[in-house]
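Hi C.,

You asked whether I'd gotten around to modeling the 257-residue construct. I have! Everything is below, sequence then structure, no commentary in between.
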Amino acid sequence: MSDFLPTEPYKGVRDFYPEDWARMTAIFDRVRRTLSAWGYEEYNASPLELAELYEKKTSEEIVSEQTYTFEDRGGRRVTLRPEMTPTLARMVAGKRRELVFPLRWFSMGNRFRYERPQRGRLREFYQTDVDIIGLPEGEADIEVITIADRILKSFGATGSEYVIRVNSRVLLTAACEAAGLTPEDTKVYMRILDKKAKMSSKEFTDGVAALTATNPLTLIEEDDARIRDAKTAVLATVATLKERGVASAEFDPTLTR
């Protein structure tokens, strides 16, 4: 048996030596100050959750292809959290009678996704989740996007250095229905659209053509009457954001997340 001790971390994660962690902590602290000024409270939870939670609350692609899931010594299936939303839902449901709504909560910490490591994208990553529970959807969206803009500006970024892309899942779904896509084909279309930037024009066109003769994006661009209300709503959101100082907000019909 070799006594060799590897010095490299597990593939897809990184070490933080004191200088590196001090830099990360400074970033976290600045984000915390901005969120606290907006009345948000920080919460946290263990990175270990029962696998069942993600199987019920997360997309099939993440569960089947991107999670670290294993059986513990007690025979329970456990998952390292790939995202925070299911944990948030579990926690709020557990104390819903004790909490005062609307809730403004945020969480900062590590998440894990079993993907092929890419440039700038690792299997362990740090993320800030900002959530409002108990406000109408449109108002909550505008507030969270405005906060994201303020966080970027707190680091010295100017509006000309970044773009905040805005779309509506309601709009995309309406366009897919107008194009005659079934709910299952709509999911496939969304996956293709999500990867559009990484595909050639022919690959994207062929992928859409296999599902429908009418690209839902075309209906959005042509302002089809069947999707006009949904498009008007998202354009109104962008206009409101600009009124509130988020000059970099732009409507992007290809955005699926």
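If it helps when you're writing up: The beta strands are 41-42, 48-50, 68-71, 77-80, 103-112, 124-133, 164-166, 249-251.

Thanks,
B.
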